[in-house]
Amino acid sequence: MEIDSSWLPTLLCALNDGIKYNDRLKHSETVKDPEDIEEWILQMLQFKQYLREQLSGEPKLLEQYGEYLRD
């Protein structure tokens, strides 16, 4: 599967927003099992690492979007 680079900013922003939102959510009083959320956050972080690895072969894109790939 290939993802057009024009979608990369949207993908990275959505991923980072998802990580932030779920990190806050796991501390919410409404959450009964924060371990489920932690597992989901871990999966998103692994996906972020995968994107880093994929972009390592594309120096121009990595330079352009690298700031969004930091943890």
Plain-language structure description:
The chain has helices spanning 8-25, 34-55, 59-65. The two termini are 25 Å apart. It is mostly helical and 71 residues long. Helix 1 (8-25) packs antiparallel against helix 2 (34-55). The chain has one domain (12-69).
**How many strand elements?**
0
| Residue fraction in strands | under 5%
**Class inferred from helices and paired strands:** mainly alpha
Largest sheet features: none
Radius of gyration: 14 Å
The SSE order reads HHH
Show unreliable segments: none
What is the number of helices? 3
Task: Provide a quick synopsis of the model.
66% of the residues lie in helices and 0% in strands. The chain has 71 residues and is mostly helical.
What's the topology here?
Elements: H1 8-25, H2 34-55, H3 59-65
Helix pairs in contact: 1-2
List its traits.
71 residues; mainly alpha; 3 helices; elongated
